């Protein structure tokens, strides 16, 4: 349902976000495609881990006069951003730390029986669990040269209830402090809180 050609088409930030929202709605309506997306099969892995967060980041970071061009592959960045004259103003590299093994097992359960595993944790513990994966990703990214690139670290967790917002804010500040302690070779580094559609600048 989604092709490489569709994904790599240059769009303004608003257009990219509309493209993502349109296809998310179509996925919900078609069972086979929804199941493929849940299990992150094929191009859906890229769509979920790169294009969806890119659409949020671009909408909140660049003027709508820009054109954002996602690039699939292993070229060291996931998107090129150009100004109205076609000049490159930024490269964007996204990374999505998660427990992919656990996520894959849970996705199979969702597809086979309609719901995943029952996971119980104390408030803030979900952020603590992610910290190991964030740390591993940051150390790997620190070994590469992103000096002309904006690095976006995507963090996915369900938003806390009102009574735990301060707790989660403290946990996120801990994550930022940790990421700031890593010596990246990058133009800018951001955290993107995916479910909250919130961007936090780490440095740059």
Structure description:
The protein is of the alpha/beta class and 204 residues long. The protein has one domain (4-203). It is built from 7 helices and 6 strands. It has helices at 4-8, 13-29, 31-38, 43-61, 100-113, 125-142, 165-180, and strands spanning 67-70, 79-82, 88-95, 145-155, 185-193, 198-203. The protein has a 6-stranded mixed beta sheet, sandwiched between helices. Strand 4 (145-155), helix 7 and strand 5 form a beta-alpha-beta unit. The radius of gyration is 17 Å and the shape is globular. The termini are far apart. The mean pLDDT is 89.
In a few lines, what is going on in this structure?
This protein is α/β, with parallel strands linked by helices and 204 residues long. It has helices spanning 4-8, 13-29, 31-38, 43-61, 100-113, 125-142, 165-180; strands at residues 67-70, 79-82, 88-95, 145-155, 185-193, 198-203.
Largest sheet composition: 6 strands, mixed
DSSP summary, beta strand count = 6
Strand content: 15-25%
N- to C-terminal separation? 37 Å
Return the structural class.
Answer: alpha/beta
Please state the average pLDDT score.
89
How many domain units? 1
Helix content: 40-55%
Q: Please state the CA-atom Rg, rounded to the nearest Å.
A: 17 Å
Low-confidence stretches: none
Strand order of the largest sheet: 1-2-3-4-5-6
SSE succession: HHHHEEEHHEHEE
Shape descriptor reads globular
Supply the number of helical segments. Answer: 7
């Amino acid at each position: 349902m989604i092709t490489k050609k569709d994904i790599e088409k240059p769009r303004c930030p608003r257009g990219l976000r509309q493209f993502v929202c349109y296809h998310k709605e179509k996925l919900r309506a078609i069972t086979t495609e929804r199941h493929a997306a849940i299990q992150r099969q094929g191009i859906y892995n890229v769509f979920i881990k790169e294009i969806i967060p890119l659409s949020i980041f671009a909408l909140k970071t660049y003027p709508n006069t820009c054109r954002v061009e996602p690039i699939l592959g292993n070229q060291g960045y996931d998107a090129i951003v150009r100004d109205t004259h076609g000049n490159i103003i930024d490269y964007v590299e996204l990374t999505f730390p998660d427990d992919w093994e656990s996520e894959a097992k849970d996705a199979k359960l969702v597809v086979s029986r309609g719901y995943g595993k029952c996971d119980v944790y104390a408030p803030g513990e979900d952020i603590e669990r992610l910290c190991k994966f964030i740390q591993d990703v940051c150390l790997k990214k620190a070994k590469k040269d992103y000096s002309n690139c904006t690095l976006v670290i995507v963090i996915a967790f369900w938003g806390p209830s009102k009574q735990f917002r301060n707790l989660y804010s403290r946990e996120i500040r801990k994550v930022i402090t940790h990421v700031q302690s890593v010596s990246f070779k990058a133009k800018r580094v951001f955290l993107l809180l995916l479910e909250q559609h919130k961007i936090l600048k780490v440095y740059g």
